[in-house]
Each structure stands twice: as structure tokens, then as C-alpha cells.
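dude i think i finally got it to work??
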Amino acid sequence: DVPLLTPNLAPAGCEFTVTSAVEALDAAVKEAEAANPDKPVRLIASSMGAYVAAVYASREDNEGRIDRMMLLAPTFRPSAVLDSLANELGVEFTEAFREDLGNHEEFPFVSCAAYVVHGYDDEAAPLDNSLTWVRDASVNMRTGATGMGVRKRPLVSAGAGDD
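look at this
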């Protein structure tokens, strides 16, 4: 009995950038809040969408709007992995997208509970970037960077391949 919204973060007629994707996610979150004011908003996202979700949740004006997040193979530090991601997905990132990345943190800090699932062998979005994000977020929360208590920041990693 849980409503699920699946917003298109790259609507037709719109230049796809992290900023435009965050705006599309904001509209979806507002829709979810309006339709279900008594239910917490939780985000599940993968790859570049997981990075967008983290950027969204990191914004000061969104503090407390997101209850928790599940990030699947997030593309943290996207400027360093954009070419390998484009090759794996078979897409081309525009110059506008690449320029817009400079407006966003490579490792956006979120204060809500966050869970990361990431494979060992992911070449497009390296596991090391997720490990860095989890470690840095945990340190920031323990040192009180946001004035909030320590929140769970687990990382689950699974390999795909012959061992």
C-alpha cells in the first residue's frame, strides 16, 4: 500500500543536466508529498539517478524532506567517470551536461539515512567512489558537521563474476 512514483529525470524538450534532473526530482517529491502528506518520502535510484538523488537530498532547503535513500551503483565523482559511463550506457553526454557538473559536489553530503548497493566489478561507476562517499558521510555525521546525530550509512557490495 505504498505509492511509487517513477519520474522521468530527462523530460522531452529539456536539455538534460544534473540541475534539470534535480528540478524534475523536486517536482516528483512535491507531488508525492501532496498526494501522501502523512507518508515519508524515500528515494530509490541507480547510476546517474543515484547521484542526482544525493545532490537533491544534499540541498539545504531539502533538509528533512527525504526520510531515507537506497542508492544502487551511484555515480559519485561523475566528472571522472563520465566517459566510461557513456561507453557502458551507449549515450553521449552533452557539453551543457559536462559544464553543469561543475555546479554540483562530486560527493554530495546527505543527512538522511542512506544505503548503497554497489558491485565490485563496476567499471563505469567504480566501487571506490561509493566507499569514499560512505566513509566521508559517516565521518561528517560523527563529527557533527550538520548538527544531527549519527545516522546509518551502510554499504552492501556484491561481485558479479567467477571467483
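The radius of gyration is 16 Å.
im so relieved honestly
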